[in-house]
Amino acid sequence: MTDKKPDGADAGDVARPDLPATGWAVLGLLSFGEELSGYDLKKWSDRSLRFFYWSPSFSQIYGELKRLEKAGYVSSRTVAQETGHRDKRVYVITDEGMAAVRRWAREAPVEPPVLKHGVMLRLWLGHLLEDDRMREVLGRHREFAETMRQRAEADAAAARDEAARSGPALVLKWSERFYAAERDLADAMLADLAERDRGRP
How far apart are CA 31 and CA 74, in angstroms? Predict the structure, then answer.
């Protein structure tokens, strides 16, 4: 089934195929125009995607690359290594792949994020935890959030130096603010615990 082309769509746009979100993420990484290996894609996803989506494993990346190549959205070639290691396969987006990911970015439904917050779930079971353990869980989460905030800040600064990556820079700034909020929420929850304890007989 072919979707109706929206007003202003490029002539090369194609109907959006049925790809999983991870497939679109991998194709999106390639949409910046670089020829990348699976290893390169994993490194970049660790520096970018993991702050707001997730960083797929090597096996997931290679699985999606096979799916994308079969669909005609990427092409690949083998490159000899100068270091004596075995040859590596690199991938580049095709015109059809660029049209597909452009259309997906423009027209995919805006879906609410699914919150799966393990720390909140554990605190929800606070009646089964000692107070010190609850504070320890919150403290570790606060440390994690602050570490991620600092990394997002550093990666956003690096991305700002490349005009073609203004989108990733903006999303990394969002990620920096998100993790700052998580850090502050952990602090607020620790304060809530302290207030609750003061109110106990």
Answer: 10
User: Quick one: tokens of 55?
Assistant: 């960083």
The model's pTM is 0.78
Instruction: Tell me if 38 sits within 8 A of 89, measured CB to CB.
Output: yes
Tell me the sheet residues that pair with 92: 75
Phi-psi region of 72 (alpha: psi -120 to 50; beta: other; left: phi over 0): left
pLDDT per residue as tens digits for the range 61-96? 999 999 999 999 999 999 988 777 788 999 999 999
Token pair of 117 as six digits: 């917050």
| Contact predicate 141/148, CB 8 Å | no
Task: Report the candidate in 189, 120, 150, 195 with the shortest Cα–Cα distance to residue 51.
Answer: 150
3-state secondary structure the chain: CCCCCCCCCCCCCCCCCCCCHHHHHHHHHHCCCCCEEHHHHHHHHHHCHHHCCCCCCHHHHHHHHHHHHHHCCEEEEEECCCCCCCCEEEEEECHHHHHHHHHHHHHCCCCCCCCCCHHHHHHHCHHHCCHHHHHHHHHHHHHHHHHHHHHHHHHHHHHHCCHHHHHHHHHHHHHHHHHHHHHHHHHHHHHHHHHHHHHCC
**Backbone phi and psi for residue 88, each to the nearest 5 degrees, phi listed first:** -115, 155
* Owner of token pair 């991938």: 91
Q: What is the pLDDT of residue 156?
A: 83
